[in-house]
Amino acid sequence: MTEPLLQIQQVSKSYYHKTGWFRGRRTLALEPISFALQAGETLAIMGETGSGKSTLAKIIAGVEVPSSGQVLLRGEVLEPHNYRQRCKHIRMIFQDSLRSLNLQTSIGQQLLEPLRFNTALDPQEQQQKVIATLRQVGLLPEHFNFYPHMLSSGQQQRVCIARAIILEPQIIVADEAFVALDPSIRAQIINLILDLQEDMGISFIFISHSAEIVKHVADKILIMHHGKLVEFGTTEALLSNPQQQLTKLLLGVE
Fold this sequence. Notes:
The protein is an alpha/beta fold and 254 residues long. It contains nine helices and ten strands.
């Protein structure tokens, strides 16, 4: 059997709320969880508000550090604070595209930054790579000199996707990234994601409340409730034979 691209092994997350001089109360946001994802697959993580799905996504992307457990990429442990190691392989797209962009910096400069720090490309090659990536996500070379406020919400999201793919990662994590978009724009962005996945072989992890999106894009679905994994399987299996009432509710299955 092929080694999984991503392995989550007994990963958990606790937070401590400090009160005065004392360490304070411990909140378990994510109970130990394990699962695997193959190369080229799309995983949807679903759950109600407070279920721990965003915490899990941030741990995978390296934004949060797990309290226990390991994240492995092709069998190699991803060290929690080794951002250089992780950012080449796992990138994240956030929910609010405008807030995740630097309003004071041009689009081109924001896309050049990861190339400067993570590649050996010379300045001319970096610029060529940025232009090619803009075209890849359906934007124009002229957008290099634009600032985020000059773009529509759909174009801003395309810039965020460009920033996520520019280092040619193996995994992209999208945390409710398309929820604020108009339905027609959302459909265009999702089709773009599917095209990029086919062209680049990227695996996607989506955090989503939308059963419609999940049914359209996901190969596997992971259902969470109060920090626990309650059901995990292929989209086909969970749609045809869900075992949990919450799964039925989230997927709109009778």
